[in-house]
Write a structure and sequence with these properties.
This protein is flat. The chain is mainly α. It has 2 domains: 49 residues, no CATH class; 72 residues, no CATH class. α1 runs antiparallel to α3 and α5 packs across α6. The chain contains 9 helices and no strands.
């Protein structure tokens, strides 16, 4: 990302953060309640910007998971996965793997949603115990 794009992104995040801060405490609580997450999570998500969590739909598509169907059937689960994805520390790696078409092969090693995604895909959890 170039310098100008970085500055614009920073300005956008700064503006959104100030908009959230401008809300009255009861309005912030209502917003958090409406989207089903704690208020501190809303603050962190706003700080991460609008692209935070954009990898989840792409990864689900790469895994041939029907996001729309899963969202209809398990909305709370998809919300929780989205929050987890939005706060992920390795999103750049995920984006790189998605762009290269490798994410379906590599996500298990770093994705905080990996176990849930495997289960949604009908995979059984891997038993790492040695009997």
């Amino acid at each position: 990302m170039g310098l100008v794009a970085t500055i614009r992104q920073w300005q956008s995040i700064w503006a959104r953060s100030h908009e959230l801060e401008a809300l009255a405490p009861d309005q912030r609580e209502a917003l958090a309640r409406d989207i089903g997450v704690p208020e501190d999570v809303v603050v962190r998500l706003v700080a991460r910007g609008p692209q935070a969590g954009a990898e989840l739909p792409r990864l689900m598509q790469a895994l041939s998971l029907d996001l729309a169907r899963i969202r209809r059937e398990r909305a709370a689960l998809v919300r929780d996965m989205s929050v987890t994805c939005s706060e992920c520390a390795v999103s750049a790696r995920c984006r790189r793997d998605l762009d290269r078409g490798q994410a379906s092969l590599t996500y298990r090693g770093y994705c905080p949603n990996a176990e849930t995604l495997r289960e949604l895909g009908g995979e059984r959890p891997v038993d790492l115990s040695f009997s």
